[in-house]
Amino acid sequence: MATAEPSCDICLKLHVTKSASVWCSESKEATCEDCKQRHRIQKATKNHETIPIEDYQELPLYITNIKLECEDHNQKLDFYCSFHSEPCCTRCVSEKHKDCREIKPLPEVADGVKSSAALSDLQDRVSDMSQVIGQLIQEKIDNKSNLQSTTIIDEVEHVRKAVNKHLDTIQDEMLTNHGDNDRQQIDNIDCLVDKLSEMKTNVDEIANALEKTKQHASNFQTFLGINKWIREIENHEMELRSAQNDQSMANVDIQIRINPLLSKIERDVSEFGKLEIYNSPPKKLVLRKEKQGQQLLIPSSPSIRRIQLSTIRSFDIPKGSQNV
Are strands 103-105 and 79-81 parallel, antiparallel or unpaired? Predict the structure, then answer.
């Protein structure tokens, strides 16, 4: 988030320190109450949009670091190239983008972005993915709880009472193996839960950043922020699909098969039983909004009314000619 307790930038130039009350994203300045009034009536800044400094401090760091000037030419970014998906200044248009046909004024592109289908779709995808990850985490926690039940131990002890003397050694071996397998599977589940929790934290951060941006950021800042978060959420979607297809995501169940020859244990049985790990497929949770991201920019073909005609060649038709 933005830096805490900023001071008025205009007053600082006069070597005076005052707490700022509003932020102007176009001027990139924080102003106090006195300077705010002058900012509103000056010709160069009267049309600038400002937000309370408290709202500015809630914005994601990526949003507050967005620059309105071209880093290459130090000129204002007035245009947006749909082909390269980047803002550009006048010099960029004439130099780097001179062959690009999808150049539009940046205000025209960013106008209405907060109510756009792209922003709404991204929020839905973030919410959807957060919900799916939460359900996967709960499934793993339930699986872990089932692994920690005493069913196997109770069954072992029930058989153990019938053949107490001979089973002392092999019971200890069986319980030790059970404990090792149990801990190994629990460690695996904990590792998966940690990975999914980290993924969910990242997704929730995007969701929070989106909400703050939608509430407080300028259209320009929101527009560029969406491009970044769309790429990030697509990466998380790929990670989630990959994790769900991984064998390690299978639900684990440890069962025991009791040796049917226990009645002849002293003579025939040399081991208590075999621990077997069964992997059942996890629930397949589908991302409802998967890969359905709306395009921020949809290039439109020029209307026929906007087509301008130019003279290529002219000629005269002789009077009286009938076969033309």
Answer: antiparallel
Q: Which of 140-149, 190-199, 247-256, 277-286 has the highest mean pLDDT?
A: 190-199
* Conformational region of residue 159, where left means phi above 0, alpha means psi within -120 to 50, and beta covers everything else: alpha
Report d(CA 163, CA 265) in Å as an integer. 8
Q: Are the CB atoms for 270 and 277 separated by under 8 Å?
A: no
| DSSP-based three-state secondary structure for 312 | coil
Question: Terminal CA-to-CA distance of the chain, rounded, Å?
Answer: 75
Residues near 48 by Cβ (< 8 Å), separated by ≥ 6?
Answer: 24, 26, 27, 39
Which pTM does this prediction carry?
0.50
Whole-number Å distance between alpha carbons of 50 and 53: 9
- Look at the block and give the residue holding tokens 């005493």: 150
Pairing of strands 86-88, 50-52: unpaired
Alpha-carbon distance 243 to 238, whole Å? 9
Does 284 have pLDDT greater than 80?
no
Please tell me the distance from the alpha carbon of residue 9 to that of residue 3, in angstroms, as a whole number: 14
C-beta separation of 89 from 70 below 8 A: yes
